[in-house]
Amino acid sequence: MQLATMLGAPGTAMRLPQQEWDSAVTAALVDSFTVHHVGNRFFRAQCDAVGVSPGDIRSRADLAKIPLIPVSMFKSPDAHVLLTASLNDIELDIRSTGTGGVPSVARRDTATLTRAVTGIMGTYRDLFAVSRGAGLFLCPSTAEAPEMGMVKVFNLLNGLFDDHTYLVRDYAFDPEEAVAYLNRWAGETTRHVVGPPFLVNRLLRFLELEETPLRLDPESLVITLGGWKRYTGESIGRDEFDAKVGTWLGVAPDRVRDMYGMIESNMLAVECEHHRKHVPPWCYISIRDVTDSAVELAPGQTGGIAILDATNSGYPGFLMSDDIGEVDESGCPCGRTGQTVTFRRRRQGAELGCCAVSIEKFIESNELVAECAVPEAVR
């Protein structure tokens, strides 16, 4: 199955027999590797240094030979050397700023952006099966945060809803307004909640403090992206989170879906009803030894998450992340094949670098300033 076919029919591609998936993802990645080997002097130098060329990649086992770009390079002032496309062909810069304050900048050319939008929208349709309803987005709009990767990914969802609203404005969030929006559509259409875990958790805490549970709808989804660790280092427990969603929003655990991705890659792994995050069929996740990233580990072993993405033509989409986790290639009860990925934690010493971390840190700093402000009456 060719890349264009996979992007156009992700539901079919995610249900290929495992051997056919193996061949399809390898072929797509060899084609992508060839493009960057030929057209990118910097990347070709990395290939020459380890003695690998497209002719050496004959099977999935050979994919581990492809040189990986550390995601830290996207923070470098000379990150433009990563580009295969010319700067004139770049249509969009996607940025993420973590606790260190140094942005990662990932530049998408037109072809990459078109493939990303097509693949993500098809994945949403296959995993979520939504085409109507009201979407409460607990994040800034793309107008307010046009370069934020998480917001761009969420924004693609709003085209599947009949109505939607963004309730983080000027990096402030009003839970009462969120409740009013959900109540407005009660009995009219299915209501969905979309946002990073910490902001959904803020809504849940508000409902708990007010002792006013909401009952959403049988088909309601709670969709999250952005990591489960706050900028303070405190973790949000998934089981506790799902239980609170059930108690205060009335949404069953199989309708709570998390996603995993990073701004440097087009790869977005979306959970099915069994809480397994399915790697899209045009991507391959390779788990690497944390002490030697050249060593690939077997499925089920824990190590560094490397992402090989066939959709990226702007720069080589063969990335070594700062994340730790595992892949599973066993069959999923939902019927999809290929790989599923589990994110465990960030690599020791790596900063928290997702968009959600930046939003949360800014919101909380603004709230502290507001709480400490001296009222006019006592000045």
UniProtKB/TrEMBL annotation:
It holds the Pfam family LuxE. GO terms for molecular function: long-chain fatty acid--protein ligase activity. It comes from the Bacteria. Residues 19-360 form the Acyl-protein synthetase LuxE domain. This is Acyl-protein synthetase. It comes from Actinokineospora globicatena. InterPro entries: ANL_N_sf, CapK_Type1_Caps_Biosynth, LuxE. One of its GO terms (biological process) is bioluminescence.
